[in-house]
Amino acid sequence: MSETRVPLYHYPASYAREHGELEQYRASHQANYACRDMIEKEARENYQDNVLDTNAVLDAAVSEYGYDRVLHVLAATLRCKDWDNRFSRENKVWAKSVGTPMDVNAAGDNRSIDYAINQCHSCLTDLLVTAARRYLPRGCYSLLRSTKEIVIIKRGESGYYQTGIHAKNKAEGMKIVDEYNQKLGVSKAQAAAMEAGSMFGWNIPAADPRSYDQDGKLLRSERNEHER
Questions:
Q1: How far is C-alpha 81 from the geometric centre of its chain's CA atoms?
Q2: Domain that holds residue 102
């Protein structure tokens, strides 16, 4: 993970100007460019025999720029290319719903198009978007409820790795886990999916971060299915 990661700025230039935050906006905008370039580079290097290794592309980009920025760049790309029918309808709907406002200036120009992915075939970009929406990190922290120990979960592996770090109670343990995962750029939904995968298998709906809300709570439809 980059030690100098620039925070993602969630608002357009007009908002930044009004609130005296143009410096943060410009730094984030430059990071969007760099994230776009890395995604395109990794896509070229990880495409062989008509197969794109989406995990390899996302692992590299997320490690350097964070999951939120990768999603931001991918969503902005689809929103700027809504005319392109090579993107799936489901992914287009997602792109419009993820809270990445269009950055339009006074002349009506969309600044988001500056960092839209162009050096990658639309079909491959669509594969990346689909993979990114259910992406799980290589590892995350979790709390072992029985002993209050902080443990490490690794993608695709059953069980956990001990750290020797123990919390006094569940509340303290969850606070530590959330802080550690936040530093890794791991969302609560991803952490919940990782925990389910490590215990019950990685091919179940509960091992997909899309099955959870932003607080890591299982969505009602998935909970009903799990209870059947």
A1: 20
A2: 13-133
